[in-house]
Each structure stands twice: as structure tokens, then as C-alpha cells.
Write a structure and sequence with these properties.
alpha+beta, 7-stranded mixed β-sheet, 6-stranded mixed β-sheet
């Protein structure tokens, strides 16, 4: 068994029917030329042989008696793939808008906690002839960066696939859940371990907190204890800052990564600054059109990874900071430069404070205590009257810079699908993939019914920033633009080298299936 950390359990206990706490992705796939097989069956076969490559696929929750402590992860010895992997056919005409609306509907339902917390949907019927793969996994077991590691278990680097080494045989316990004595012992052991780890880390946490809270000395040798001029505890209220329902709406948009890099290079900002400025400009236009743009700047809640480089553990190592979007500035160029300034300041402060943030901590009776608070907040609709800490969530996930394949099909897009929350009815998550930057906008349908208008505003703001960048940069040759599009040098986890045996094995499966149906 494996214990949930304090952060993992928070995603579990704060979940409600109105606020499911799973994250997902939407991949559009090109089938191989001349393909005549059953892609749904190929998907099940592909996932079945890879279940052991990522523990998120094979573990489920074991709840503690009377919810006295956080649950634990246990191995599920009987995975029902017919439940976890499902087939959907879109009605005609099978447009991209229909696909995204259906994904929004699928994303609104809770995962079954008696099973491993994941589901895949193969969606066909698209008028383009493509198929789509929508996946969702509970945030209690995975964050954005750990999700990339799961993707590296699912996907291949070539259409021919790879040889998957089968798992080592294990003795079956034939036990659906653990016994009460075993669970209580695990709860006590986990609480003691969490307390001991927290006590050991207190000196480091105290030192980091002191470094973060005590301001650095200025030129006069004195420390400036005053708050920053731009500091605001609360964000201005907008139509985004309400109690949400479980109804969802989703829109995906794509911009070329080369163009984003060009904007960043020409304007002297980071890629993340471009994402923030693009979203800020789109929100400013969207709210202004509805006559509700506040005079004060909007602010975003931005997840910050606490994960060490190379750590691919399937858990959550993330915190959150708020950052101004400078939407009170009309000029797009001045706005992105202000965002760059604020971002640099936030990163500097976060680097000092990072080590002081614990991701695991003891909290007796956490399940019923946190769940009760979450339920009270949801049912009382307090989000409609309380001042919001931020207006929306914006997350930028570093994705996979190379072409991927799934069950022999080419992965064209990688739209992230994340979590709206009470008081922040809109979540904008961005993921880079193979020369693309895919935006996924997920929102409460009642709060943001016209999310596609906002998504189109993102593309318009991107073009505005691109024009500004080109105006400040001499004409670039095609080779220079291509160089910008090239992925940065980074460590990519090698999945495996494709081998011809995989092709033979897939062909044999299809031949056998065709003979059985003849």
C-alpha cells in the first residue's frame, strides 16, 4: 500500500459533484493510411499491455474506517478494461465543436472511487476521418508534470510501436479491500511518519520562511518592510468569480510554437509571459465587450511545480501563487512588459519560499473535516459573495517536444482539460507538443457559456502580439523561423526503440480478428 500525501488527499477531499477534481487531455489522431481495423479494440490491447508501466492505472483507494485518516493506494488485481475504456461515436456532421462539447460533458462526471481513478474514451464519427482519444485521471494521484510521465508510458515514438516487457508475475491476494485492523495500523503508521518527517524538516522550513519573509537590503543598507505597490490581497469581482455547477464547456485552440518563441525573443520576455499576456488580452477584450471590465487588473492563480528535476513520481508536488495580468493596461506591448516584470518578481520570491512549502503533513480526521468544509462552501454559495483571491487559473505545462503515436495512429494534438473551481469558473491550461502550443479552456457552462468566443479572442491576441514582435524584429528568413521552432535541448525519457516485431504482432492480431468475423 502507498499513502496519499497531504496535497494528494486535499484534491480528493475537496471534490464535490459540482467540482470534480480530475484532469485530462484530448488527443486528435490520424489513423494509418489504408487502416481498416477496429481502433477501439486496438486501443484496449495497447493499454492492456502497458498497465504496469504507470502505477496510476492499477491502484485504487482503500478508505479508512470512519474516515479517521487519509485513504491509501492499494493494488487492484482485477482491472475491468471494458469499464475504463469506452467507445463513443459522434452524430453527424461530426464537427470539431461537437467533439469539444462532448468532451466537456464527459469531463463533468465524477470518477468511480471503487476502481482505479482513470477513464479513456475513443471517439469516432469525426467528419475529418480522424479519431479522438479523451482521457481523464484524478488529480489526487497525478499533477501536470507526472502526467507527462504517464504519457510517455502510453505513447510511442514511431507508428511501428515498441516491445513492452510484461510485468513480473505476482502472487494474487484475491482481496477486494484491506481489513479494518490493517487499515487502522496503516493510518497510525502514516500519521507517525508524516509527523516525524515534518519535525525533521522544520529547521529547513523555518530557514526558508525567514529568507522568504525577510526582505533583502536595499542600496541604503536597510530592509524595506513595506508591501509592493501592486500588492492586492483580493482580485476584482467578475462574472468568472461565482459558485459553479457541474456543467462544463470546453474549447481548444492551437498556435505555432515557433510564433510564440518569436514573440518572446523579439519582445525580450519568456514563453510563459507570452501565454499570460495572450490570455490577459483575450480576457480584457471579452470582459470589455460585456461591459464588465474592472478598473483594477485581473489576477490569475498560477500552479508552481515543487518537483525536483527527473522526479516522475505519480503524486502531487505543486503549490499556487497569484499573479497580476495587467488588464488595466490598454497597450498590449506595455501589458506584456508589465507581466514580464511582475513574473520575474514572483519567480524570485517563489524561489526563496519554495523549500518552506511542505507537500505532506499530518491532519487527523482530514477526510470528513475537509469534505465538510468543501460541502459547506459549495452548498452555501459563498463564492457568490466572498471577494475572490484570483479571477481564474492559468497553467503552463511543459509537454513533449517530439511526434508521438498511439496504437499505430499519429497524435496530432494534445489539448489539456483541467479543473474549474468555485470562485474561479475558468481554467486555461496550455501544453506544448511537437511544435504546437495547445490551449485548453474549460469552464462552468453557466458562468462562461460563450467560451468559444473567449478562445477565438486568444487567437486574435496572439496575432496582435505577433504583429508587434515582427514590427520590432528585422525580417526573418525561413531558416531562422525554423530554428525558433526547433525544440529546446532537454532530457526526454526514452520510451524504447521501435522494432519490426511489433509490426508483425499487430498484423497477426488483425488477421486473427478478421478470420474470426469472416
Amino acid at each position: 500500500m502507498k499513502h496519499l500525501s497531504g496535497v494528494d488527499s486535499a484534491f480528493l477531499h475537496l471534490e464535490s459533484p459540482e467540482m470534480p477534481m480530475h484532469i485530462g487531455s484530448l488527443n486528435v489522431l490520424d489513423l494509418p493510411e489504408g487502416y481498416s481495423g477496429d481502433f477501439f479494440e486496438d486501443t484496449k490491447a495497447c493499454i492492456q499491455e502497458r498497465l504496469h508501466l504507470a502505477e496510476v492505472f492499477t491502484r485504487k483507494l482503500a478508505l479508512m474506517p470512519l474516515d479517521l485518516s487519509n485513504p491509501v493506494w492499494v493494488e487492484d488485481e482485477d482491472i475491468d478494461l471494458d469499464y475504463h475504456i469506452r467507445h463513443v461515436t459522434l452524430p453527424k456532421p461530426g464537427s470539431n465543436r461537437q467533439l469539444q462539447q462532448y468532451v466537456a460533458r464527459l469531463h463533468s462526471s465524477l470518477l468511480d472511487r471503487s476502481r482505479p481513478l482513470w477513464e479513456f474514451f475513443v471517439i469516432d464519427g469525426l467528419k475529418s476521418g480522424q479519431v479522438a482519444l479523451y482521457s481523464k485521471l484524478h488529480h489526487a494521484g497525478i499533477d501536470g508534470q507526472a502526467g507527462v510521465a504517464v504519457a510517455q508510458a502510453m505513447f510511442d515514438l514511431a507508428a511501428t510501436g515498441r516491445i513492452i516487457k510484461p510485468p513480473r508475475p505476482r502472487a494474487r491476494r484475491n482481496q477486494y479491500q484491506l481489513g479494518i485492523a490493517e487499515l487502522l495500523g496503516a493510518a497510525l503508521s502514516n500519521t507517525l511518519n508524516q509527523s516525524a518527517s515534518l519535525i525533521k524538516s522544520l529547521p529547513l522550513i523555518a530557514k526558508s520562511a525567514k529568507n522568504a519573509l525577510v526582505p533583502e537590503k536595499g542600496e541604503n543598507g536597510k530592509r524595506d518592510w513595506s508591501l509592493p505597490k501592486d500588492f492586492r490581497l483580493f482580485a476584482p469581482r467578475t462574472s468568472l468569480n461565482v459558485a459553479i455547477t457541474n456543467q462544463r464547456t470546453f474549447a481548444g485552440r492551437t498556435v505555432p510554437l515557433a510564433e510564440v518563441k518569436l514573440i518572446a525573443k523579439a519582445l525580450g520576455v519568456s514563453l510563459n509571459d507570452v501565454v499570460m499576456a495572450t490570455t490577459a488580452g483575450a480576457l480584457r477584450s471579452y470582459l470589455k465587450e460585456n461591459n464588465e471590465l474592472p478598473q483594477r487588473s485581473l489576477s490569475a492563480a498560477v500552479p508552481v511545480s515543487l518537483r525536483a528535476e527527473g522526479d516522475t513520481t505519480s503524486n502531487n508536488q505543486v503549490s499556487m501563487v497569484t499573479m497580476s495580468l495587467a488588464t488595466d493596461i490598454k497597450d498590449p506591448l506595455a501589458r506584456i512588459r508589465k507581466i514580464n516584470e511582475l513574473s520575474a518578481s514572483t519567480k524570485a520570491k517563489m524561489s526563496r519560499f519554495k523549500a518552506a512549502i511542505p507537500t505532506d503533513f499530518p491532519l487527523p480526521a482530514a477526510p470528513w473535516l475537509m469534505s465538510a468544509v468543501a460541502s459547506l462552501f459549495s452548498r452555501s454559495r459563498l463564492a457568490n459573495v466572498m471577494p475572490p483571491l484570483a479571477n481564474l487559473v492559468i497553467s503552463n505545462v511543459a509537454g513533449i517536444p517530439v511526434q508521438l503515436y498511439f496504437a499505430g495512429a499519429k497524435v496530432v494534438s494534445y489539448y489539456p482539460v483541467s479543473i474549474p473551481a468555485h470562485s474561479m469558473a475558468l481554467n486555461v491550461t496550455v501544453q506544448s507538443y511537437n511544435g504546437r502550443l495547445d490551449y485548453g479552456l474549460i469552464a462552468c457552462r453557466r458562468a462562461v457559456p460563450d467560451v468559444n468566443d473567449l478562445a477565438d479572442g486568444l487567437l486574435a491576441e496572439h496575432r496582435t502580439l505577433l504583429d508587434l514582435a515582427r514590427a520590432q524584429t528585422p525580417a526573418l528568413s525561413p531558416s531562422a523561423v525554423e530554428a525558433l521552432a526547433a525544440p529546446a535541448k532537454r532530457k526526454v525519457i526514452e520510451v524504447a526503440r521501435p522494432v519490426p516485431v511489433a509490426v508483425k504482432r499487430l498484423a497477426a492480431k488483425r488477421t486473427k480478428r478478421a478470420a474470426a468475423t469472416a
